[in-house]
Task: inverse folding
């Protein structure tokens, strides 16, 4: 009966059969990881890439034109165009609608241009005030005082068949598409 | 008894854990580290375990859905037996955890425990701090109420300021274009799986390094750390005046741990759970969102920074602070450990504590926010009206109706955004008052478009009466020369 020699790790630099297979195994696993990583990363980034492909923005109705008296600013709400079953009330969004003249409107995002808190309209003083850090805006949405660096975000709007419609679908932040659609641009853009 | 011993032996024959556990428990520690100053690390671990247990209990009821999270919290508070107590424990546990981690960090720094060879222990600790803050923020989001909703909006607004990738970061953070169901779900995944998993791994690493490298000896002024000799010195120290960790030092950790558990339970019992505040319905805009206690300083900072500095500050300072904390043990890896010989270290800790404390204090009464209901809710005090003319009273009305009061207080009520106006007539002449009202400036909106000439005249007439009885209103001397001096009108005595 012959005793099998103990396999010692080879010390020479030539590639042994077993370490070749180990390296092949690592390579094979790397390939498998890459195959799986593509859908995983695609899934993780879907909220970003989807926005780029067909866009999150679409036209949503706010209400009939006669709901907004001329010269006044009224609160309106709309349902975000992209709804998921678990969204609950969060898809309902508020905005300020200012009817300047017959078919001339300004539709402001509710979010303060500073850090997104909900601004409130005070018709008596003609100001929008923010409860968080004290930003204030004039009736036309331009910056009056406080920390905001720009005026309120404005939604593009159109009036069709007596219906006021706005282009919405994204949270109004300084980097969002809505920030550059209308109104003044941030100083660094 | 013999049965138990036998069973124990059976298990240990297979697990072989008894010897290493005994070795870890009885490893020698320098005698004077058995101190009440050395209990904060184990206390942080204790609170972490409480958070794990109470978190799992909450997950039995909580529904991470934007449509139902708020009602499931209401059910926990009001329907499920002792649900309110578990929520309160978890909420207070979170506050205690941040506080203890910060105290632990300050103590470690002041005792020079971040120096050679414990640099990596410190760095892992920095990541533990960041994860603790991450847990605090994501936890606040899971309490899906108005504060959580608008807090996410603030987070998104900050993220969107990152150059180029900002909008993508926002969508990644929110899981879509708006704050909605996907947002809550991903914060749930972060709060319940991702961060706790990392936290557990890092805690194990942190504790393992404390065991392997030994607890930091009590810093003695003059006992200087040198890379070449420190380990031999530490070894000699634990040999000459060492004592086994169990039971010599551990009893203090155990007492403090029990004290902390009872303190959290007492806070939970007496003060109850946090929120939830109003429903996360974005169409309800009558809200003044505020972050949780440990982010109040940031809230204050964002109100007080000059607008143009804000974005650079938000994007540059946090990475610099984190890099600074990570580099700290390499920049001061040797030398004196004792706080008695490190005045700059002591001053730095005090400065940071005072700064954060001041900002937190300010954020509790938010002097920068307009009081939205002051104009209709806070009356003009009688003494400001008594004995005034019809024009001045009309001015007081304009003052209220035009919401001046939301930012300016008189008689100590009203907003604090602008200066109090109780003695404004002493500071500004009639012309200056008119100019300030019409043109604004100095962080005040211009009211020129919103006041008729009659309203402006009345308002300024009222403002001119606002001066102490002993001090006359400010006058423009040049105007007196041109138009002739008229005796200043005496306002109401107050």
Result:
């Amino acid at each position: 009966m012959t005793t099998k020699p103990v396999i010692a790790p080879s010390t020479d630099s030539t590639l042994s059969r077993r370490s070749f297979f180990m390296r092949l195994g690592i390579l094979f696993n790397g390939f498998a990881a890459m195959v799986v990583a593509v859908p995983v990363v695609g899934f993780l980034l879907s909220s970003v890439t989807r926005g780029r492909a067909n866009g999150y923005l679409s036209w949503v109705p706010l209400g009939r034109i006669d709901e907004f008296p001329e010269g006044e600013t009224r609160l309106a709400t709309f349902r975000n165009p992209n709804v998921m079953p678990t969204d609950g009330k969060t898809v309902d969004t508020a905005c300020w609608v200012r009817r300047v003249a017959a078919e001339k409107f300004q539709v402001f995002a509710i979010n303060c241009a500073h850090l997104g808190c909900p601004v409130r309209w005070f018709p008596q003083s003609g100001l929008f005030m923010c409860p968080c850090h004290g930003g204030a805006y004039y009736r036309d949405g331009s910056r009056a005082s406080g920390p905001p660096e720009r005026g309120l975000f404005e939604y593009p709007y159109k009036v069709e068949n007596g219906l006021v419609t706005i282009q919405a679908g994204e949270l109004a932040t300084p980097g969002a598409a809505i920030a550059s659609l209308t109104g003044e641009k941030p100083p660094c853009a | 008894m013999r049965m138990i011993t036998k069973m124990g032996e059976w298990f240990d024959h297979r697990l072989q854990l008894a010897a290493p556990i005994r070795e870890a428990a009885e490893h020698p520690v320098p005698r004077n580290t058995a101190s009440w100053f050395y209990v904060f690390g184990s206390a942080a671990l204790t609170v972490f375990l409480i958070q794990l247990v109470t978190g799992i209990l909450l997950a039995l009821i909580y529904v991470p859905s934007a449509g139902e999270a708020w009602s499931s919290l209401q059910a926990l508070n009001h329907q499920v037996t002792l649900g309110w107590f578990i929520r309160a424990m978890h909420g207070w546990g979170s506050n205690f955890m941040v506080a203890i981690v910060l105290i632990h960090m300050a103590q470690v720094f002041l005792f020079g425990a971040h120096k050679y060879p414990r640099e990596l222990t410190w760095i892992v600790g920095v990541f533990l701090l960041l994860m603790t803050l991450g847990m605090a923020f994501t936890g606040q989001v899971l309490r899906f109420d108005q504060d959580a909703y608008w807090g996410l909006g603030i987070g998104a607004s900050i993220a969107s300021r990152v150059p180029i990738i900002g909008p993508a970061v926002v969508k990644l953070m929110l899981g879509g274009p708006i704050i909605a169901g996907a947002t809550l779900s991903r914060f749930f995944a972060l709060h319940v799986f991702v961060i706790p998993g990392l936290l557990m791994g890092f805690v194990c690493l942190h504790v393992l390094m404390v065991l392997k490298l030994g607890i930091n000896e009590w810093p003695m002024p003059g006992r200087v750390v040198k890379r070449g000799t420190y380990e031999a010195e530490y070894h000699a120290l634990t040999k000459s005046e060492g004592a086994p960790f169990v039971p010599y030092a551990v009893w203090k950790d155990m007492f403090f741990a029990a004290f902390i558990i009872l303190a959290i339970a007492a806070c939970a019992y007496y003060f109850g759970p946090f929120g939830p505040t109003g429903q996360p319905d974005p169409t309800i805009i009558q809200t003044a969102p505020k972050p949780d206690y440990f982010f109040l300083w940031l809230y204050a900072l964002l109100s007080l920074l000059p607008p143009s500095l804000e974005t650079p500050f938000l994007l540059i300072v946090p990475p610099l602070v984190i890099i600074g904390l990570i580099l700290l043990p390499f920049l001061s890896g040797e030398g004196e450990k004792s706080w008695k010989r490190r005045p700059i270290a002591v001053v730095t800790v005090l400065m940071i504590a005072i700064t954060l404390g001041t900002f937190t204090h300010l954020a509790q009464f938010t002097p920068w926010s307009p009081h939205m209901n002051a104009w209709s809710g806070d009356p003009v005090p009688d003494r400001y009206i008594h004995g005034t003319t019809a024009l001045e009273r009309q001015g007081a009305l304009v003052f209220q109706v035009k919401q001046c009061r939301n930012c300016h207080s008189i008689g100590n009520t009203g907003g604090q955004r602008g200066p109090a106006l109780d003695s404004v007539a002493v500071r500004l002449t009639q012309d200056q008052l008119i100019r300030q009202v019409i043109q604004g400036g100095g962080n005040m909106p211009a009211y020129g478009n919103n006041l008729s000439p009659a309203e402006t005249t009345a308002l300024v007439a009222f403002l001119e009466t606002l001066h102490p009885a002993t001090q006359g209103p400010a006058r423009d001397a040049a105007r007196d020369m041109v138009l002739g001096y008229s005796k200043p009108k005496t306002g109401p005595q107050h």
